[in-house]
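Ticket opened by: R.M.
Priority: normal
Category: complex prediction / small molecule

The reporter submitted a protein together with ribavirin triphosphate and asked that the result be attached to this ticket for the collaborator who will pick it up next week. Submitted input follows.
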Amino acid sequence: MAVERTLSIIKPDAVAKNVIGELYTRFEKAGLKIVAARMVHLSREQAEGFYAVHKDRPFFNDLVGFMTSGPVMVQVLEGEDAIRKNRDIMGATNPKEALAGTIRHDYAESIDANAAHGSDAPETAAQEIDYFFKADEICSR
Ligand code: RTP
Ligand code: MG
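Result attached by the on-call engineer:
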């Protein structure tokens, strides 16, 4: 299995719950390394650009409103099969469907406020990492 990088965002609800460290522990226990990280309060333009793929979906406005409602923690996770592994740790988009022990099961309140983001494929991971980090801000290890 190849070593990959994926973009992870701890969303405003989870930052407000003060569980950044708890989520980092879950990533690390799964063998994922944090190789870049930054806290940022996204502007409307930044959130719209990040979720541009969803711009015609009915939930787009709510999604952008939520993602700009408070600071987020953005990180690059590196490890074997990192993209799938991170999505497994996060659980299903809708917390009502997320398996016990996943981040969204344990911390998310709703499909809108669902605690974490993770890239869904190698191409989107590369684009999303580029969206937030310059090459020299990522410390591969
Ligand atoms: P994310 O991109 O945030 O990691 O979430 P995801 O891949 O699991 O889900 P995605 O389909 O990419 O949707 C992005 C975010 O939009 C909200 N959403 N709401 N009301 C709805 O039907 C609906 N569908 C999606 C969720 O907050 C989801 O995380
Ligand atoms: Mg997605």
